[in-house]
């Protein structure tokens, strides 16, 4: 009988010990979740160049004072979705009171003129900036009556993205009416480039660089790389 009651008492003490440990853990978790010590006080934004970080911080201001474990990321996503310059973002919680927001901005590919207004657009056709004057530093894109959802625009952006950065920076204007007739003009004396379709763009880009290296940059004319196996230069 004594051995039986001793075992029963041991089991009882073990159950009580485990229950106490669980209660302590639950309490610690509750403190971690609801304690004002671990509430949001600081929002740090990085990766921006066109967007003012203060605007991002103000957008998530409603989360200030909320425990980090209870932040409403659906609300944050809704607030940040109003920024057209944000292509994507990643959040990172840094205890005890900081939220990091890593921003990836949309990169401009060129500008289009619509109703007298120059619109800086990214490869998806999303407007990044509007200006009454032509926007410097990017090529002017002309696709006739087509819009950013057209095959002509898709071909133009694919061609521009295929160019090495230094060569792309020299493109003054680029035009297309279909997906098969892309052409552009280089800065300087206005040497033209007949590109054709966006197919074989990597080979065409390498061929164009080779042809440019062989010609006097002050010589007016037109490069034709529409046939990537047989590029030519036509002097004016």
Major β-sheet annotation: 9 strands, mixed
Overall radius of gyration: 30 Å
CATH class of the largest domain: Alpha Beta
Mean pLDDT across residues: 89
Give the terminus-to-terminus CA distance.
114 Å
Helix count equals: 6
* CATH architectural type of the largest domain: 3-Layer(aba) Sandwich
Share in helix: 25-40%
The CATH topology of the largest domain is given as Rossmann fold
Structural class label: alpha/beta
User: Strand percentage, roughly?
Assistant: 25-35%
Secondary-structure element order, N to C: HEHHEEEEEEHHEEEHEE
How many domains? 3
Specify the overall morphology: elongated
Assembly status: single chain
Strand order of the largest sheet: 6-5-4-7-8-9-10-11-12
Total strands: 12
Low-confidence stretches: none
Q: Can you describe what's shown?
A:
With 236 residues, the chain is an alpha/beta fold. It has three domains: 1-34; 38-105, Ubiquitin-like (UB roll); 110-235, Rossmann fold, CATH 3.40.50. Helices cover 33% and strands 27% of the residues. The chain contains six helices and twelve strands. The protein has helices at 2-34, 53-59, 73-80, 151-162, 165-168, 201-214; strands at residues 42-46, 86-94, 98-105, 110-114, 117-121, 127-131, 140-142, 171-175, 182-186, 192-196, 221-224, 232-235.
């Amino acid at each position: 009988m004594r051995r039986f009651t001793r075992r029963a008492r041991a089991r009882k003490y073990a159950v009580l010990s485990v229950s106490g440990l669980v209660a302590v853990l639950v309490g610690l978790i509750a403190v971690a979740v609801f304690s004002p010590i671990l509430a949001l006080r600081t929002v740090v934004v990085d990766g921006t160049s066109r967007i003012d970080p203060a605007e991002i911080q103000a957008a998530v201001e409603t989360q200030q004072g909320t425990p980090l474990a209870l932040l409403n990321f659906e609300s944050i996503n809704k607030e940040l979705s109003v920024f057209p310059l944000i292509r994507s973002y990643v959040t990172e919680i840094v205890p005890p009171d900081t939220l990091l927001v890593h921003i990836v901005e949309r990169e401009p590919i060129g500008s289009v003129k619509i109703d007298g207004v120059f619109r800086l657009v990214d490869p998806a056709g999303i407007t990044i900036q509007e200006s009454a004057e032509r926007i410097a530093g990017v090529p002017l894109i002309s696709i006739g009556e087509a819009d950013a959802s057209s095959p002509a625009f898709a071909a133009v952006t694919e061609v521009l993205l295929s160019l090495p950065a230094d060569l792309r920076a020299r493109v003054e204007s680029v035009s297309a009416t279909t997906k098969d007739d892309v052409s552009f003009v280089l800065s300087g004396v206005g040497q033209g480039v007949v590109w054709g379709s966006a197919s074989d763009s990597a080979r065409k880009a390498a061929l164009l660089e080779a042809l440019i290296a062989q010609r006097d940059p002050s010589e007016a004319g037109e490069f034709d790389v529409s046939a990537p196996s047989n590029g030519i230069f036509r002097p004016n």
